[in-house]
Q: What sequence folds into this?
């Protein structure tokens, strides 16, 4: 996809580009936000048992656990 320098276009060319973009956007399938939010919440709640951020990481599998008896430089 070529890069277009919009500053060098005439007003007519800019208007044509805008109309083309609007024609593309009008064809997009729309969805009701409340329905999408409900579906998303159900999806997230269905995966909560597997979610590491909710459940946490088992100590034996945690690569970031603090080591005991580390070195302290004073």
A:
């Amino acid at each position: 996809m070529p890069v277009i320098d919009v500053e060098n276009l005439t007003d007519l060319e800019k208007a044509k580009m805008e109309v083309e973009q609007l024609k593309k956007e009008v064809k997009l399938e729309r969805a009701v936000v409340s329905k999408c939010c409900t579906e998303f919440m159900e999806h997230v709640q269905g995966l909560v048992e597997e979610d590491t951020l909710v459940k946490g990481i088992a100590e034996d599998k945690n690569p970031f656990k603090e080591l005991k008896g580390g070195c302290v430089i004073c």
Q: What stands out?
A: The chain has a mean pLDDT of 88. Residues 11-26 form the longest helix (16 residues). The helical segments are 11-26, 33-46, 52-55.
